[in-house]
Amino acid sequence: MAPVSTDPAAADGPPNAAYVFAVAFRLDPRDAAVDPDRFETTMEIPASAPETDGWLFFRDRLWRGEIGDEPSFRRLAGDRLGVEVVAASFRELRTDEAYLAALKTAIGADLDRFNAESVDEVLHKYLGSSIHVRPE
């Protein structure tokens, strides 16, 4: 994974982090029978570079390491996957050190946005202990 700049204008490469979810979906075929009709898989949503559109995904969708509004998230996941998602759970923010450092810098620049006293409080408040740092 390539390093992430803390400068939003420099965020032209692929993200170095992804939100990982377990999702279950159901098939409802026309004129056919399927068995099983429910499947489980892992879905990764690329994390936007800090301070760019979409970077607050964790704040808007997660709470204490869980999906904050599961029905809304299931609709989002279903739209992205093209199937009816019947269950979903957050697994982790999979990241490298550079992305995590950039995320912490962006959070620390505006703690009031998160109603928190520290960056660690923000990370725990939204992601719980579900941050998995991988080597670059």
From TrEMBL:
InterPro entries registered for this protein in UniProt: LWR_salt
Domain of life: Archaea
One Pfam family of this chain: LWR_salt
Name of the molecule in the record: LWR-salt protein
Organism (species): Halorubrum aidingense JCM 13560
Higher taxonomy: Archaea, Methanobacteriati, Methanobacteriota, Stenosarchaea group, Halobacteria
